[in-house]
Amino acid sequence: MYRAAVWGASGMAGGEVLRILAQHPSVEVACAVSNSKKGQFVWQVHPHLRANFSNLAFCNTDEGLSTGADIALLAVPHGTAVPIIESCLKKNMKVVDLSADVRLSSSKDYEAWYGHSHPNPELLSKAIYGLPELHRDDIRDAVLVSGVGCNASCCILGLYPLALMGLIEEARIEVRVGSSEAGASPTIGSHHPYRSRTLRVFEPFRHRHLAEILQELSLKESAVTLTMSAVEIVRGVQMLSHIRLSQKMSERDIWQIYRKAYAGNPFLQLCPAKPAHLRFPDPKLVTGCNNAMTGFALHEDGRRMLVVTAIDNLMKGAAGTAVQAANLMLGLVETEGLTMMPVYPV
């Protein structure tokens, strides 16, 4: 058994990492780090995990570093991960960081998108972007892997088959997100009484996750917009991308491109062309699992296209992909601990 230290374990993503590891056949939880909840039992914050972690209590950072764990999964707030990464690497722990701190490979891009210089640019050159579908072999050999933005991963997984073929001339993306994306601490925008029953656009053109999309798909910002909307769900992300293709295509060609790109990726699924109500995925169809579902339709002109992808933001958009990457880093089967079925209906 490998041993994992989970930082930020009292948050939503950290709790989801614990839920996955609770039944992982090859990785056990060495410690659950939460400085703010130190001494409390894990089940007092995550009551659904009481049967699995009846005696596990949160510990602080120093205790987490002293466990001798093989790998650390960091689900801490953005901007706070770098010192923990440095300390874990010094302790010879491999690291998967779910925050945004090492997602971008360029320090110049990091400063442009996050508004300040990176505290340790060397980490950016060392980190591998943690989407196994794109970087599986590099992740196997890595000691530091970044997490993925949930919105970014939904967009990248839906569009990378087209990007690989150089077919995206323009992409106008809308992403619809659930409330759990805002995390466990409520704000005036995420607090339930103000957010419930809304359809609210909160970013019209340029969310910071766009940086990851441009980086991973090798697209120019002038060709892509990313509009974000808050919708009445708790878990889930749905991307709708209106694409203008760089050349005229047939629907048969598009099917072949997606099938080839998705082959060998155990968590990527294509929606059927029929019946019509299943052609485009609803986040409800992936709730609680690590799957990403994609559907598409090609306009009769052969140039315009709609691509729709759905994921569970806490799973494929965060904890699920992090554990998937950890499996690869530890030399395990990629799907270990991640074969849970989606919960439906929800």
TrEMBL record:
* Annotated active site: 150
Q: What is this protein called?
A: N-acetyl-gamma-glutamyl-phosphate reductase
NCBIfam families xref list: argC (TIGR01850)
UniProt source species = Acetomicrobium mobile (strain ATCC BAA-54 / DSM 13181 / JCM 12221 / NGA)
Q: What catalytic reaction does the record list?
A: N-acetyl-L-glutamate 5-semialdehyde + phosphate + NADP(+) = N-acetyl-L-glutamyl 5-phosphate + NADPH + H(+)
> Which InterPro entries does this one have?
AGPR, AGPR_dimerisation_dom, AGPR_type-1, NAD(P)-bd_dom_sf, Semialdehyde_DH_NAD-bd
Q: Give the top-level enzyme category.
A: oxidoreductase
- EC numbers on record: 1.2.1.38
Which GO terms are recorded in the biological process aspect for this UniProt protein?
L-arginine biosynthetic process
User: What is this protein's function per UniProt?
Assistant: Catalyzes the NADPH-dependent reduction of N-acetyl-5-glutamyl phosphate to yield N-acetyl-L-glutamate 5-semialdehyde.
Q: Which gene encodes it?
A: argC
Q: List keywords of the entry alphabetically.
A: Amino-acid biosynthesis, Arginine biosynthesis, Cytoplasm, NADP, Oxidoreductase
Give the family per the record.
Answer: Belongs to the NAGSA dehydrogenase family. Type 1 subfamily.
Q: Provide the GO MF annotations for this entry.
A: N-acetyl-gamma-glutamyl-phosphate reductase activity; NAD binding; NADP+ binding
Gene Ontology, cellular component aspect: cytoplasm
What Pfam families does the entry give?
Answer: Semialdhyde_dh (PF01118), Semialdhyde_dhC_1 (PF22698)
Please state every residue range assigned to the domain named Semialdehyde dehydrogenase NAD-binding. Answer: 3-142
Q: Pathway of this protein?
A: Amino-acid biosynthesis; L-arginine biosynthesis; N(2)-acetyl-L-ornithine from L-glutamate: step 3/4
Compartments, as annotated in UniProt: Cytoplasm
